[in-house]
Amino acid sequence: MAKQAGSGDPRVRGSRTGRPIMALLELLGRRWSLRILWELRELPLTSRALRTACDEASPTVLQARLTELREAGFVELGDGGGYGLTALGRELCETFMPLHRFAERWRSSPSPRLRGEGRGEGESPRRR
Fold this sequence. Notes:
Blueprint: H1 20-28, H2 33-39, H3 47-53, H4 59-71, E1 75-77, E2 83-85, H5 87-107
């Protein structure tokens, strides 16, 4: 990420402030970032095992995300060649657990329309 002129804060897409929360959300919002962290939450995985766990994500994109997550301090390459979470990465994943539990309750809630279910392909929610 580029630095703002005269500032110690990194420039964050969509933000003039470079606030840490904006930088974190921008990183986590990139394709496959959250999935990689989620798949590594229990045990380290090799690059190939991680790709399989991520539904055969493009190796190029997967490696780019792993590089970004390593630079951010969330993922590390272990001695055995597998990728695992750092202490900071494990802490981040722990912050996801309340959201995960909420998502599980939401998925089984009786309101499928709120989850986008029951609409035809390309049908706007307002047309129902």
